[in-house]
Amino acid sequence: MTFVTLYVFVLAGFVGYQVITRVPSLLHTPLMSATNAISGISLVGSLVAAGARESDVATVLGTVAVTCATINVVGGFLITDRMLKMFHTHERPPREEEK
Amino acid sequence: MSTRELLIQATYLVASVLFILGLRSLTSPPTARRGMQQAALGMLLAIVGTLLHQQIVDFRFILLGLVLGSLIGYPLGVFVPMTAMPQRIAISHMFGALAATLVGITEFYDAANGLRVAHARMAALGFEVLFGALTVTGSFIAFGKLQELLPGRPVTFRGQNAVNGLLFAVTVALFAWLVVHPATPGAFYLMAGLSLVVGVSLVLPIGGADMPVVLSLLNSYAGLASSATGFAIGNNVLVIAGALDGASGFILSVVMSKAMNRSFANVLFGAFGAPAEGAKKLAEGQTVRSVTAEDAAIQLAWARKVIVVPGYGMAVAQAQHQVRELADLVEKNGGEVLYAIHPVAGRMPGHMNVLLAEANVPYDRLKDMDEINDQFREADVALVIGANDVVNPAARNDRGSPIYGMPILNVEDAKSVIVLKRSMNPGFAGIENELFFSPRTSMLFGDAKASLTKLIAEIKQQA
Q: Does the CB of B85 have a partner CB in chain A at under 8 Å?
């Protein structure tokens, strides 16, 4: 762990703050489910824990962690997409991708 | 850096950029879907990159976790109804935090139970496990309340804040001790256990109407725990994603607290217990005017401008489709229909927007408070569906009211107000609502869905 990591954290926090303050309240629920899905990136830690064969404890806890994180990734992105699909200005939702 | 390591880091970098672009795309609905799909692609890249990791020697358990997670995650993503979204979000905070906590415990355990953990790393691991564990149980309790497995009203007892404060202080003290003396497994596991208890005791006293703030705060904690994981294992994409998640949750909690004119501390420790005394008196000596569906329908059928004010009652009755149907009829008669969305209407940020979007309401009709408040003056009818506190004038007029100072929708400015309400029971906060006694207001009692169905039938008959 280096001091650089702290830079990354603080700068990412700033970027996040700037980007997310511009999300309209209309999309606050999709925002929540989107950040949930993105936080599933903790897979990068749990995959190593589950597969490194350091100890049985690590394998078991790691596997549970992989399961939990995968639930958020799969479920999170799917539900976010499902919600975003519903937001439209036309009388009928567009069938294909806009543009 | 080996080629393999370089490749892994490259996937992480791309993933980080795609995550930020994905969140940026959420600033407007037309770009949002594409942006989030790219973020999902970034996630896939990062996962594939991680699988190249040299330390991974056994893929069997990884596969088991991935398959199991997908099997559970798919139905949670595809079949959960929009009305169940608050509890769905709460439970996913729990999964996210649980993953972070377990990785933290694994890291500690594998480093000879803390013997080989440096002080700085211990700070990251401790933070991760403390906030992670607290979020796991906190989110689970929130889920239980929203799913109505637990009572939605605040669970309080005498001296609760003192007990909670003491619990939290001991947990933090253990954390501090660990940073100085990492090789004390007893302290580590005790801290993890106590954090679980703190999560329960933190959320139990919080009532349903405050859930938007709690869900946002837990979102933030889950993100910070992930970020701490990134610190502990030296992984930047995790630090970045966690920081984004943490920032998002923090911003949402601030927005929600402001919309209730309350501080975090007040939400967390000031459970609405007994109703204010002065407010109760209001009900005596005043009468409400109840109206039949037929009369209300006539008003709506001839209205040129109708503003619908949805609240949690609409979600409970799952009446969003009937709302849309009614709006269609008003529009067919040449009227305009807009929707006034209070930031804390419902049980989570954006709750009403999602429900109405599901019912096919175009999003340009969904107006937030600042945008619509001046328009009530021009409205012929304000149709309040299962909303209470967010339209209570006591927030402006009654200094003694627990919701005094909360910004509200200017419903009383409308030429007439129709309130759809189950009964005259006061809302969650136990506060009488002066609006219901106003001469401009008529009450249509009954389940929101049933009342709307009646209104629709009446309007159709008149046409």
A: yes
B69 and A97 within 8 Å at the Cβ level: the answer is no
Name which of A61, A69, A84 is nearest B33 (Cβ-Cβ).
Answer: A84
Decide if A20 and B32 are in contact by the 8 Å CB cutoff. Answer: no
Spatial separation of the C-alpha atoms in residues B232 and B428, rounded to whole Å: 43
Mean of pLDDT over chain B: 89
Q: How far is B321 from chain A (nearest CA, A)?
A: 13
DSSP E strands in B221-288: the ranges are: none
- The residues pairing with B366 across neighbouring beta strands, listed in sequence order, are B339
Q: What is the ipTM of this complex?
A: 0.91
Nearest to B96 among A30, A39, A77 (CB): A39
- Torsion, Cα A58 A60 A64 A70, to 10 degrees, reads 70
Look at A1 and B12 and tell me if their CB atoms are within 8 Å. no
The neighbour count for residue B351, using CB atoms within 10 Å, is 28
Query: Alpha carbon of B439 to those of B320, B387, B435: distances in Å?
Result: 28, 19, 9
Domains and CATH numbers, chain B: 80-269 (no CATH), 278-462 (3.40.50.1220)
Q: Does B278 touch chain A (CB under 8 A)?
A: no
Is the pLDDT confidence value at B268 over 80? no
The CA-CA-CA angle for residues B5, B6, B10, to 5°, reads 120
The model's pTM? 0.90
- Which residue, among B131, B144, B448, has the nearest Cα to B309 in the 3D structure? B448
How far, in Å, CA of B217 to CA of B21, rounded? 23
In sequence order, the 6+-apart residues with CB closer than 8 A to the CB of B126 are B175, B178, B179, B188, B191
Query: Helix, strand, or coil here: B385?
Result: strand
Which pLDDT tens digit goes with each residue over B81-106? 998 999 999 999 999 999 999 999 99
**Residue among B389, B398, B413, B447 flagged as catalytic:** B389
- In A, residues 55-84, which contact B (CB 8 Å cutoff)? 55, 57-59, 61-84
Please confirm, yes or no, whether B389 is among the known catalytic residues: yes
Nearest to B50 among A48, A71, A98 (CB): A48
Q: Say what percent of chain B tops pLDDT 90.
A: 64
> What confidence tens digit (pLDDT) does each residue in B63-73 have?
999 999 999 99
Sequence-separated (6 or more) residues with CB below 8 Å from residue B140: B90, B91, B94, B199
CB B40 within 8 A of CB A72: no
Find residues 17-46 of chain B whose CB sits inside 8 Å of chain A: 19-20, 22-24, 26-30, 32-34, 36-37, 39-40, 43, 46
- What tokens appear for B272 in the block? 């609405």
Domain boundaries, chain A: 27-86
Task: Look at B362 and A13 and tell me if their CB atoms are within 8 Å.
Answer: no
